[in-house]
């Protein structure tokens, strides 16, 4: 409703709206995902239902429909068909496309909210949304990568704030999920150095405070 009223949309909201409209006309519509993008696939419809090319096509063919195109209203009629990419199977696509169930498509809503939170350095919120996304779509490798990056970047932010114990917890969770994560060992070593420096500074401050304190006479003497 927000997209329809405001005109503010992205590939996800456009795909959801397109699929709703397609299903109203009894078309078999399903979501497709590629890295950072979603679109729609229509199955079992002849090409003449969408194009004016006059070609004859098997009803078993599918059509991958880009639901977002910045220049739609500037395209000539002959070029409008570029928004429709006929594929017999997803294997013929130059991009790596993955069909999504309706639940997996909903997962992209949480994924997008997670990305928005990460961009604002709201790591806890971003991780919560992205983990919800993974519960709906466990096969989303991009979302999983965002969880790992979120843990790593949150740990670095906590280090910068001097919250070393909290940073260690995030890196520990990152190691549990992916012990081979790039820069993990380097960041763990960085955390240890900062923590040791802080402990040494605390010890020095405590020693200096003791040495500076006036000696009190024992009342027993």
Model description:
- The protein is an alpha+beta fold and 221 residues long.
- It has two domains: 99 residues, no CATH class; 110 residues, Serine Threonine Protein Phosphatase 5, Tetratricopeptide repeat.
- It has eight helices and five strands; from the N terminus they run ααβββαββααααα.
- A five-stranded antiparallel beta sheet has the order 4-3-2-1-5.
- The C terminus is likely disordered.
Shape: elongated
- Work out the number of β strands: 5
At CATH level 3, the topology of the largest domain is Serine Threonine Protein Phosphatase 5, Tetratricopeptide repeat
Structural class: alpha+beta
Helix-strand topology string: HHEEEHEEHHHHH
Mean pLDDT: 79
At the first level of CATH, what is the class of the largest domain? Mainly Alpha
CATH architecture of the largest domain: Alpha Horseshoe
- Within CATH, the superfamily of the largest domain carries the name Tetratricopeptide repeat domain
Provide the β-strand percentage band: 5-15%
Biggest beta-sheet profile: 5 strands, antiparallel
Number of helices: 8
For the record, give the distance between the C-alpha atoms at the N and C termini, rounded to a whole number. 85 Å
**Rg of Cα set:** 28 Å
- Uncertain segments: 86-93, 204-221
Q: Order of strands in the sheet with the most strands?
A: 4-3-2-1-5
**In percent, how helical is the residue content?**
40-55%
Number of domains: 2
